[in-house]
Every structure is written in C-alpha cells, then in structure tokens.
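lol forgot to send this yesterday, sorry. struct tokens for the thing we talked abt
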C-alpha cells in the first residue's frame, strides 16, 4: 500500500534563498539537515503537515543532483511515496516490467530504505519509494 506522499525533492539554484522562502516567508518548520554520502547530497528538511520538502544540494560534481541542476535547472527533482514493505514493492514492480534505478534498497535520509523508479516507466517523473525504519 502507498501510504502518502513522503516528500518532494527540490533542487534550487540558491539553497539559502529557497530555505529562507519556505521557512522565513511561508513559516514552515525547519526540521534539520543531513548529508547522505552514498548519494552525494546535502538535504535540508522543511516540514509540512503531512509530508516534507527536501531541499537538495550536491556535495560533489558527480552527484545526480549536480547533473540535474546542470541539465534541467532548478525545480522538483523527484516525488517520494511512502510504502509499507519496500521488498514486496520491488518484486511487484519487477513483475510488471517496471524499470528500476535501484535493484535493491539503499539508505536514504531520515533512516529510511529507498529505491528509485526510472522515469521511462513513469511517464517522465522520477519516483522514489520510501520505507520508514523504526527509530
């Protein structure tokens, strides 16, 4: 079961300006930050009532975020959906010939397990499936 939209991954040209807007102007709660070394990304979390905005910044020129910003400019990079059982979802997607970027779960921000689904299988949108772990 897909539970909810977990977060939207946003890649701004100016991270400080984006955080200032969402936190300072819209008064959304800053929920902290994290560096995810495996993905070469720094993430700042902005909380909405039922989900988050993740403000993404590359920590390396090899980061997918750096490549996204270079080729597409700033914008929404992905939508993340929270699911109950990521392993079952992987099998379900494979059975339905859905192209995955990740064949096995990997670590994501906020102590989660994640996979990305290739945009070719979703009509052009990068989709992340997220499984929350026990804290």
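and heres what i got for the seq, position by position
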């Amino acid at each position: 079961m897909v539970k909810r939209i977990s977060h939207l991954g946003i890649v701004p040209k100016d991270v400080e300006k984006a955080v200032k807007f969402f936190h300072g102007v819209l008064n959304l709660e800053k929920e902290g930050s994290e560096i995810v070394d495996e993905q070469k990304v720094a993430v700042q979390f902005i909380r909405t009532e039922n989900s988050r905005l993740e403000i993404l910044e590359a920590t390396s020129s090899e980061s997918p975020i750096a490549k996204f910003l270079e080729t597409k400019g700033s914008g929404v990079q992905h939508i993340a959906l929270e699911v109950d059982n990521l392993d079952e979802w992987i099998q379900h997607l494979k059975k339905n010939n859905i192209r995955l970027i990740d064949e096995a779960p990997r670590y994501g921000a906020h102590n989660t397990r994640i996979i990305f689904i290739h945009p070719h299988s979703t009509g052009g949108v990068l989709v992340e499936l997220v499984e929350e772990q026990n804290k």
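Residues 2-132 form a domain with the 2,3-Dihydroxybiphenyl 1,2-Dioxygenase; domain 1 fold (CATH 3.10.180.10). anyway ping me if u want another try
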